[in-house]
Amino acid sequence: MHATADAIRATYRRIREMGEKPVWIHLVPEEESLARLEALGPPSDAYPLYGMTFAIKDNIDLADVPTTAGCPEFSFVPERSATVVEKLMAAGAIPVGKTNLDQFATGLVGTRSPYGACSSVFDNRYISGGSSSGSAVAVAAGLVDFALGTDTAGSGRIPASFNNIIGLKPTKGALSTSGVVPACRTLDCVSIFADDLATAARILEIAEGYDHDDPYSRPTGQKKAWRESGFRFGVPADDMLQFFGDDSARKLYKDAICRFEKKGGKAVVFDFTPFRDAAQLLYSGPWVAERLAAIKDFVADHPNALHPVTAKIILKAGSISAVDAFNATYKLADLARRAEREWKRMDFMLLPTAGAAYTHEEVAAEPLALNTNLGYYTNFVNLLDLAALAIPAGMRSNGIPFGVTLIGPAWSDEALLNTAARSQPYCPDGYVPLAVCGAHLTGQPLNHQLTSAGAFLIEACQTSPNYKLYALAGTVPPKPGLEFTLSGGAAIDIEVWAVPASTFGNFVAAVPPPLAIGTCTLASGRKVKSFVCEPWVLEDATEITSLGGWRQYLSRRA
Fold it and tell me: In whole angstroms, what is the distance from residue 40 CA to residue 360 CA?
């Protein structure tokens, strides 16, 4: 059996270990996924996504699998998959199932679903973000290679931020919405979740394209670009920033600005007012009526089917008049014209994805107010026809990821991806970034194994504050063990090396137990391969987390 079949079996094994609920609403049977792979035949250039697994938000159709939009009474079985799903499957990708969401894609919290509320993979006390909750968690938990969501008000960005992954909200109309249950039909976008920028770019390239059957699809316009160095990125004035009491997020945002400046960018303060005012129109204006228009007949026949919070939002739209709609359209046009002046000063804007992160308990107490807070930096994007890319940008002091979003004019998707990639420490194609924390550090006894493999140092940095460090007993030379934890951890000093992919396998094969290669999260929020250790060995190890790193431990021993 081809190795990719083993990977698919591993995908289903991880899902069983984690449990289907609340991430999944419907799973494609494992044997059906394996049959799809076998039907493709051997890997070839005809299948650029050969064997890659993906999840589909359950307001996007997958043929012969129910679409619920988070409402069991609404469920129907489509005969055809959504256009974007068809394109990805034609490229060799394997759909694993349909994921949970805020009902009818109404919400940024991920809690408004009869199928359960998703949580951040970093702490189950905290919300996952929504509405594309299950899709984001499926990627962040390592269940699939990528996932599809939708984004009307930030649903493809907020959950990316809270789960430390990439969330790409393409230009409106770049990806077909044929086969997507509408939220606001004039604003809806299919979004992409991935663990890394390269995968997001690859999925975009395959999924985008004009669809004659979608009246809101658009032929690709002139692609926007800017200089690789000397680019201008907009940041709001301090009095326009909102962190809702989250001082850790405020600091991480300043750190992100500094990183983009170090990569050749120039921070430009701009007037955020027209963008903020446009954001307020989305739920306070007549666009809520679009949500009712999408399901009006269903609601009339099933008045008790809606989640209570969803009903409170959507049903109020019945009082919105045509005059209200026209007046709001005029106001939006005025705000768009004012925004044009700001765009002359910057190539893209760099904003917090979300000013604060909330617990399930907090959202339950104030479901509408906190949802509004989450949309402060996201709600205006589709109204003003912009592209957006959410990327990790560090870890809050409470262990929940923080993210920033690059927002640019329509058709700047590729430029945003390229600029985000340049903001990361450079690891060339054909190399694997590997974090080391002990005997492989520069100057330590096993560092020669890296240099002999052709590796080179990318950066010295720290992990996120979610790790414990131990001195392992009886190892020669002395070695540490790194352990992920949700409490009692700290940021640990590490180095990240670029290892040639051609030698990475042999390098890993030589790693002796109890050490192994896993994944760790850096202080920047980026995920890289790293040394980890098997849990059983920690029983006899000495915890040295408080020292902050292996070199500090060695200096204490000297």
Answer: 43
Token pair in block for residue 397: 């002091």
The pLDDT of residue 1? 41
- Asked if 136 contacts 163 with a C-beta cutoff of 8 angstroms, the reply is yes
Q: Identify the pLDDT of residue 459.
A: 86
Domains belonging to the chain, first-starting first, are 3-423 (3.90.1300.10), 431-557 (3.10.490.10)
Q: What share of the chain is helix, strand, coil (3-state, %, to 5)?
A: 35, 25, 40
d(CA 482, CA 348): 38
Query: 255: burial class by Cβ within 10 Å (0-12, 13-18, 19+)?
Result: middle
Q: In what order do the strands lie in the sheet with 493-500?
A: 456-462, 493-500, 431-436, 527-533, 515-521
List, in sequence order, every residue forming a beta bridge with 30; answer none if it has no partner.
Answer: none
Nearest to 198 by CA among 393, 53, 391, 348: 391
Q: Select from 378, 364, 374 the least CA-distant residue to 309.
A: 364
For residue 375, pLDDT over 90 is answered with yes
Q: 207: buried, middle or exposed (CB in 10 Å: 19+, 13-18, 0-12)? A: buried
**Rounded Cα distance, 297 and 175, in Å:** 27
Scored b (16 or more CB within 10 A) or e, 336-348 reads beebeebbeebbb
The predicted pLDDT at position 23 comes to 98
Residue 551: Cβ-neighbour burial (10 angstroms; 0-12, 13-18, 19+)? middle
H/E stretch holding 159: helix 158-162
Hey, which bits of 271-377 come out as E strands? 348-352
Distance CA 251, CA 243 (A): 10
Q: What positions carry a catalytic annotation?
A: 57, 131, 155
Could you report how far apart the first and last alpha carbons of the chain are, in Å? 53
pTM of the model: 0.86
Q: Cα 192 vs. chain centroid, distance in angstroms?
A: 8
Tokens of 11: 């995908």
Residues 99-123 as b/e (b if ≥16 CB within 10 A, e otherwise) read: bbbbbbbbbbbbbbbbbbbbbbbbb
Long-range interactions of 10-14: CB distance < 8 A, separation 24+ = 11/53, 11/96, 11/143, 11/144, 12/96, 14/141, 14/142, 14/143
CA-based nearest residue to 440, from 480, 491, 473, 489? 480
pLDDT greater than 90 at residue 426: no
How many Cβ atoms sit within 10 Å of the Cβ of residue 84?
27
Tell me which residue has tokens 């993906």. Answer: 54
* Gap between the Cα atoms of 410 and 419, Å rounded: 16
For residues 94 and 64, the answer to whether their CB atoms sit within 8 Å is no
Question: Residues 447-467: pLDDT tens digits?
Answer: 999 999 998 888 889 998 889
pLDDT band, very low/low/confident/very high, at 398 (cuts 50, 70, 90): confident
Structural contact between residues 169 and 157, judged by C-beta atoms closer than 8 angstroms:
yes
With vertex at residue 331, the alpha carbon angle to CA 103 and CA 410, rounded to the nearest 5 degrees, is: 65
